[in-house]
Amino acid sequence: QVQLVQSGAEVKKPGASVQVSCKASGYTFTDYYIHWVRQAPGQGLDWMGWTNPKSGGTYYEQKFRGRVTMTRDTSINTAYMELSRLTSDDTAVYYCARVNRQWLVAGFFDNWGQGTLVTVSS
Amino acid sequence: EFVLTQSPDTLSLSPGERATLSCRASQSVDSNYLAWYQQKPGQSPRVLISGASTRATGIPDRFSGSGSGTDFTLTISRLEPEDFAVYYCQQYHTSRLTFGGGTKVEIK
């Protein structure tokens, strides 16, 4: 079955960077776009952008550009999201999610990672 | 920017009652590329509906989606105890995806 397993919780100081990983299994990793979504405590879902696991191409939502980098390692079927210059506003659960259809950049998400809590605190 | 506005923010209902949730888009959602998700505390979202009205695999038929253009609705015909959760709509009409702000369905 399809699984997306994310790395564990992180605590970071303001100004630091964090990298969250998302290991895929149960399907051909390079066939499906991976998106990243975050959720601040008690808040809604905030879409961050996507990565094309086949080509490495990316698209970042405007508000994250310059601070976010999405990459992948096809040898280990893992996608990564790195966010730099962290502030307390970046405290959130970060999710990776798979688009429902092969080779489709935009779609709904049929599989989600379990989420990674990133806490930014001095 | 493609904005989705959900209403109400909170719906207070009793088990067995009907829930009607609204999602309004700032622009027309072509081909009804709109999905609904359910999220319970401490869990990842789960897709309920795609294409505005197609139930995902394993979703009970008390959940139904309708609408087109800019106005969409998620209906839960008779609320079960496990349906009390937060619901989000999401458009995938453009590759710059957006979510609505969510509607919390709580027990009255």
Question: What share of residues are in beta strands of chain A?
Answer: over 45%
- The share of residues in helices of chain A is under 10%
Which pair of protein chains has the largest interface, and what are the residue counts?
Answer: A-B, 21 and 23 residues
SS summary, helix count of chain B? 0
Radius of gyration of chain B: 13 Å
Contiguous helical run count of chain A: 0
Strand-and-helix sequence of chain B, N→C?
Answer: EEEEEEEEEEE
Q: Percent of residues of chain B in helical segments?
A: under 10%
Largest sheet of chain A: 7 strands, mixed
Structure description:
The complex is a heterodimer of chains A (122) and B (108). With 122 residues, chain A is mainly β. In chain A, 0% of the residues lie in helices and 48% in strands. Chain A contains no helices and eleven strands. Chain A has strands at residues 3-6, 10-12, 18-25, 34-39, 46-51, 58-60, 68-73, 78-83, 92-99, 109-112, 116-120. In chain A, strands 2, 4, 5, 6, 9, 10 and 11 form a seven-stranded mixed β-sheet that branches. In chain A, strands 1-3-8-7 form a four-stranded antiparallel β-sheet, with no helix packed on it. Chain A is globular, with a radius of gyration of 14 Å. The model of chain A has no long low-confidence stretch (mean pLDDT 97). Chain B is globular. In chain B, strands 2, 4, 5, 6, 9, 10 and 11 form a seven-stranded mixed β-sheet that branches. Chain B is built from no helices and eleven strands.
Q: Topology of this protein?
A:
The complex is a heterodimer of chains A (122) and B (108).
Chain A: E1 3-6, E2 10-12, E3 18-25, E4 34-39, E5 46-51, E6 58-60, E7 68-73, E8 78-83, E9 92-99, E10 109-112, E11 116-120
Parallel strand pairs in A: 2-11
Antiparallel strand pairs in A: 1-3, 3-8, 4-5, 4-9, 5-6, 7-8, 9-10, 9-11
Chain B: E1 4-7, E2 10-13, E3 19-25, E4 34-39, E5 46-50, E6 54-55, E7 63-68, E8 71-76, E9 86-91, E10 98-99, E11 103-107
Parallel strand pairs in B: 2-11
Antiparallel strand pairs in B: 1-3, 3-8, 4-5, 4-9, 5-6, 7-8, 9-10, 9-11
